[in-house]
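fyi for ur records
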Amino acid sequence: MRIALLGGTGDIGQGLVLRWSYDTDHELLVGSRDPEKARTKAEEYETELDSRGVDTDIKGFENAMAADRADVVVLAVPAYHLVDTVEAIADRLDDETILVTPAVGMKRDDAGFHYNRPGAGSVAALVEEAKPDDVPLVGAFHNLPAGGLSNLDREFEWDTLVFGDDDDAKDMVVDLAAEIEGLRPLDVGGLANAAEVEAVTPLLINVAQENDGLHDLGVRFQ
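which gave:
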């Protein structure tokens, strides 16, 4: 499987690239608006993995080039760049490409972080409106602490909530998530449930910030 992480130079992109490279043999592509930045980060990831005895070949491309080569495209970009990113790669997607969004819209004030729900109803709904109609969309990886995910010395037992209206595409993302050691994907239904999933992230950040010993807080449902 060839997986492109657009925004793969950022926090959540880095964590997913490292974990999939460490735990699986999928081909990973790092995407960025700046192809040189993508190539540099890909080399850094390879060096980190090589130091742990993992021989891998991670390539870096401009976002559209990465998307064009991938079976699964993860939009690991901030929510405010999502629509622009999707529009920039739209002609590189088709009905055999699975688009994945982990993005959450948040705002911050003196009280902490809050979910910034867009007028479309959810951040995922913005992607649904921007993408080509025949490209399936799945939401996943929203509530994961990027720092803990990127630290390959960190063992964890976390859940990731997965939603989408295309069952086959959702099943594929569930399988990909389950291949990351310690990560359990849980199906929470269709795209209509996106806002409830996205809203968990600012809650977790607030809990982590207000309580000692809960840095890089994940969630497990029992």
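The longest helix spans residues 35-50. thats all i got for now
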